[in-house]
Amino acid sequence: MLPGDYNPAEYSAEYKLLYLQDLVADKAYEAITEFLEKQSEYEIASLLESFPTQNRLLIWEQVPESIKGEVLAELEYDTRQPLLENISSQEISLFTQDLDAQDISEILDTVTESVRTSVMATLDEETRVQVNKLDTYDDWEVGSYMDPDIIQIRDDICLADVQDWLRENEDLLDDESQELLVVDQSQQLLGLLSLVDLIKHDQNTLVSELIDTAITINDRLDIQDAAAIFRSEDIRFAPVTNSYGELVGQLNGEDIMEIIQDDVDSTMKNLAGVSQDEELFAPILTSAKSRSVWLGINLCTALLAAAVIGQFEEVLAQVVALAILMPVVASMGGIAGSQTLTVVIRGMAMGQIGGSNRVWLLNKELWVGAINGIIWAIIMAFIAQLWFHDIEISAVIGFAIAINMTAANVSGISIPLLLKRMNIDPALSASVILTTVTDIVGFMSFLGLASVLIL
């Protein structure tokens, strides 16, 4: 049990989850409320997403009214939706009254059009314009993540004037602000002024003397491409511009981290053939449906591999040892190809692969596959010889592993590069294609060599 005066930082997320599970099981409503009052909106959102839907509703009722809006904004769409189904527009208006445009847009994305209209009518004109601007972007575009409330200063004023202005408008800066946008008299972006420079330099210094170069991000850029830029450039703040070069928003550290995290989550789910919308505690039928498409595709590729095996029915019927060893060839090729595929997709996400280095990488993986293939071919041939005492079977398994592991490494880099050229997300389909290639090459080489050397 957690003590009444405990420090939340002293307890792990798992410990808190287990404690809350006990409270929910006991239906200790007052204790749940007391516990949640000591958590941040981020922790409450994480805890809600760690429970099945029916328990979420119980916990949600105990969340303090003062932070329900912040919690809703932090939740994933599928988690947030059931919580808002039976909530009136008046209640949602209360939740959103102290939120910024980003959080309000997140929440209103979940409700019906009539509720959205009612809530929008309660917003001030500036916030309403900002929310409408955010809603023009698709979920995969940078614009949907940006803060449309731009903090900008002129380059021809001194630091003392900037500080006076910020004190007079104390609500302009939030906890994430680290830089200010600097513009000229025609409102063209010149660069950034960091808050550190604002404080440490002589207050009579002109802003123009301390401007840092700004890397701008287009508002329609795919978040995968944006995430690659953030990683390679180590960006913690970025102005967002439209196709005309006009400032439309800014990305703070929290926004950038959210883009990177969403990109990582998307890549991981795509690699596993899972829908990007599926969450851990989604209903059974929802999860089953979201995974069925790629399971069906995988079945088709498995049948293709089975058809290849069927062409060598005669040799399998005569040599039982081949049926025993055949999975080893496919497995070794599969893991070798997956290793290369993982490294390559990560490199592509980081923006590290392109131009002439693709040929170098292809040559490298060819030799890595060949070297590892030969090493493990010799080891497996030795094991097969001790097992079956047949030099021909040992030779077949050895040569097949060497061929398949080499082909797997080459496929692990060539498949994602080819898919990217075809404008297909490599993380979404490369693993399925790779599995098909390694199975077919492995079975063809193994059974083909067996037909030549044994029959």
Outline the secondary-structure elements.
Elements: H1 13-26, H2 29-36, H3 41-48, H4 53-62, H5 68-74, H6 77-84, H7 89-96, H8 101-108, H9 113-121, H10 125-134, E1 152-154, H11 159-168, E2 179-183, E3 189-194, H12 195-200, E4 217-218, H13 223-233, E5 238-241, E6 247-251, H14 253-271, H15 284-310, H16 313-318, H17 320-349, H18 357-388, H19 391-421, H20 426-453
Parallel strand pairs: 1-2, 4-5
Antiparallel strand pairs: 2-3, 5-6
Helix pairs in contact: 3-5, 5-8, 7-9, 8-10, 13-14, 14-20, 15-20, 17-18, 17-19, 17-20, 18-19, 19-20
Describe the structure.
The chain has 455 residues and is mainly α. It has helices at residues 13-26, 29-36, 41-48, 53-62, 68-74, 77-84, 89-96, 101-108, 113-121, 125-134, 159-168, 195-200, 223-233, 253-271, 284-310, 313-318, 320-349, 357-388, 391-421, 426-453, and strands at 152-154, 179-183, 189-194, 217-218, 238-241, 247-251. The strands form two sheets. The chain has a three-stranded mixed beta sheet with strand order 1-2-3. The longest helix has 32 residues, at 357-388. The mean pLDDT is 83.
